[in-house]
Specification:
Helix Hairpins, Thiol Ester Dehydrase, Chain A, about 600 residues, alpha/beta, isomerase, 8-stranded mixed β-sheet, 10-stranded antiparallel β-sheet, binds 3R-hydroxydecanoyl-coenzyme A
């Protein structure tokens, strides 16, 4: 079958694969071409005894079905031995499903130290040991898919399972960090929270539920997360009975418990008074990275220092006319029949060019006063701020009109010597509270560096990514118009730098320069035309650095490299040969290559 998800050439280790979920993972992986190490110590569900039988039976079953498998009888605590089995038999390891587990259920008062240690050894230490042993191989291959098995017993607690619950939440923490450390080597780590009928849950779950909780209904969810096409990393998926969902942690908005930076103590009574706000989850949000949490704390401190640098909020209304003016501003033309959908409101496919959605909150997030307040010496005004970088992510279906509410904040401040970089984050929601767009803008403040600040970004600042080291796969050229900036301004960025020769001169430019976001709009149009059939719905995200200014009338050449669903691009000016957008990429939901 042409579009079957295959694992040919991949080597998978499934721990605890002699029965239940592990057996299903092993069978499914093998049936799709993976070579499988079927690990099972062959003990009882409480971890007593050992036998080679359980693993052998599964290996024989796989072989009888025409697959490849080898048995491994080691305890997962000896992770290096388990991984050795894979290396000796097949020379590599691509997938680890840490599934082995035992139960020693007792109420907290009765858990012996041995009950605690054994459960932690198999679940938590075992997952760590197997993962760590495979790490050098995965790193060298620049590829790995790891699954940690957690449980609702950990997430929510379950009477009589304190040892098991603790180990299972330990696995969530382990996965969080493994996901971060592996990301740059294409090693992904995700968590499954299964509810399955197995030796371990027999007698615990009601019969009706038990009969519906077939492990084979969970196996495809887990095995999909082990496939190279699955981008997920650091995600928790709960699955049972032919159902699956992502699980998130959320954090409330919280409240500041002191009134100024000078107040260095908080009374118990102040905490009691504020408790309602501390525990209010009405505006709870998920945070993607530890940097977001510490970034928020830094911001609270900044607010206290400044006596209240507040988050900003902006309302942005738009309709078909705005989409059309924007499309004209970034070069869409009726000469190209495929652009009509961006220019004519009655076209059956009328839609926005996705980069239109950089607009909500932009003016507020880049105003010189906001940028100035973020800098210790306040050295920012309209004449020394340049747009440095932009990240835009479309989170849901984009409408052709509506009212978006944007909440934004200063997220990071860097001291780059020649200038300061102020990073703002903006999230835009529609009238139903649906998160539609995320924007991150970096503003380069020329001459405002050397204030003794840190040089590097906090986690959560989206990095630029260098283009592959080969000739571009394709390119498209667009000539901008002498009045391009005059037209683009009409979409809302009225900065005089782009039209007023005197103002441009004060800012150090010979002539007014083009908006960075205008060049970005042209570039993303090129990517969509080349790799997405001009279909805005296929657009997911873009990141770009504005490396040098563009003058209206210059010709933009967009070089492109396709790497799966990521299209790297670099934009240069044909007349000067200078790179103007670098480190840039568009992530597509899917591609439809131009023939
Ligand atoms: C009504 C009110 C509205 C207000 C809204 C305003 C929004 C818009 O109107 C504004 C615009 O659109 S401006 C036009 C678009 N932007 C540009 O043309 C900027 C082009 N870039 C440059 O000229 C240089 O990169 C420059 C000058 C930015 C930096 O060059 P250098 O000083 O030479 O820096 P360099 O030595 O190369 O690097 C020093 C450190 O800074 C980092 N860096 C470089 N370029 C960056 C950029 N563009 N963004 C973020 N960081 C950048 C480098 O990585 C380096 O850091 P490190 O040493 O840590 O690597």
């Amino acid at each position: 079958m042409a579009d079957q998800l295959r694992f040919d050439g991949r080597v998978a280790i499934v721990t605890g694969a002699g029965a239940g979920l592990g057996r299903e993972y092993a069978m499914l992986l093998a049936s799709r071409g993976a070579k499988v190490v079927v690990n099972d110590l062959g003990g009882t569900h409480s971890g007593e005894g050992a036998s080679t039988r359980a693993a052998d039976v599964v290996v024989n079953e796989i072989k009888a079905n025409g697959g490849e498998a080898v048995a491994d009888y080691n305890s997962v605590v000896d992770g290096d031995k388990v991984v050795d089995t894979a290396i000796k038999a097949y020379g590599r390891v691509d997938i680890i499903i840490n599934n082995a587990g035992i139960l020693r259920d007792r109420s907290i008062a009765k858990i012996s130290e041995q009950d605690w240690n054994l459960v932690h050894d198999v679940h938590l230490k075992g997952s760590f040991k197997v993962t760590q042993a495979a790490w050098p191989y995965m790193k060298k291959q620049n590829y790995g898919r790891i699954i940690m098995t957690s449980s609702n017993s950990g997430m929510y607690g379950n009477f009589g399972q304190a040892n098991y619950s603790a180990a299972k939440m330990g696995l969530v923490g382990l996965a969080n960090t493994v996901a971060i450390e592996g990301a740059k080597n294409n090693i992904h780590c995700n968590v499954i929270l299964p509810t399955a009928a197995s030796r371990m849950t027999e007698g615990i779950l009601p019969d009706m539920l038990f009969n519906e909780l077939k492990p084979k209904l969970i196996a495809p969810v887990v095995v999909y997360m082990c496939h190279e096409s699955c981008d997920e990393n650091g995600t928790y998926i709960e699955s049972a009975a032919g159902w699956a969902t992502k699980v998130h942690s959320v954090r409330g908005k919280g409240t500041v418990l002191r009134t100024s930076i000078e107040q260095d103590s908080i009374s118990l009574e102040a905490v009691q008074k504020a408790w309602g706000k501390v525990t209010d989850m009405s505006e709870a949000k998920h945070l993607n990275a530890i940097g977001e949490a510490s970034g928020y704390l830094l911001e609270v401190l900044e607010k206290l220092k400044e006596g209240g640098l507040s988050d900003f909020e902006d309302v942005f209304k738009f309709g078909s006319k705005d989409l059309i003016v924007y499309a004209l501003g970034v070069g869409a033309t009726t000469k190209n029949s495929n652009d009509l959908k961006f220019l004519y409101e009655n076209d059956p496919d009328f839609t926005a060019i996705p980069t239109f959605f950089v607009m909500p909150g932009l003016m507020l997030s880049m105003t010189s006063s906001l940028v100035a307040t973020a800098l210790p010496e306040g050295k920012a005004n309209l004449t020394n701020i340049l747009h440095g970088e932009q990240y835009l992510e479309i989170c849901d279906d984009i409408p052709t009109n509506g009212k978006l509410t944007t909440t934004g904040k200063v997220f990071d401040v860097m001291d780059k010597g020649s200038g300061a970089v102020v990073v703002t984050n903006c999230d835009s929601y529609d009238e139903n509270g649906r998160l539609l767009v995320k924007n991150q803008s970096s503003i380069f403040v020329v001459g405002a560096g050397k204030f003794g600040g840190k040089k590097n970004p906090i986690q959560g600042v989206v990095p630029v990514v260098a283009a592959p080291n080969r000739a571009p796969d394709s390119f498209i050229q667009y000539k901008t118009n002498e009045d391009q900036a005059a037209l683009y301004r009409m979409s809302g960025d009225l900065n005089p730098l782009h039209i007023d020769p005197n103002f441009a001169a004060i800012s150090g430019f010979k002539v007014p320069i083009l908006h960075g976001l205008c060049s970005l709009g042209f570039s993303v149009r090129a990517v969509l035309a080349q790799y997405a059939n001009n279909n805005s719905a296929l657009f997911k995200a873009v990141k770009a650095r504005f490396a040098a200014p563009v003058v209206p009338g210059q010709t933009l050449k967009v070089d492109m490299w396709k790497e799966g669903k990521r299209i790297h691009f670099r934009t240069s000016v044909v007349e000067t040969g200078k790179d103007v957008i670098t480190g840039a990429y568009v992530d597509l939901k899917d591609t439809s290559a131009k023939l």
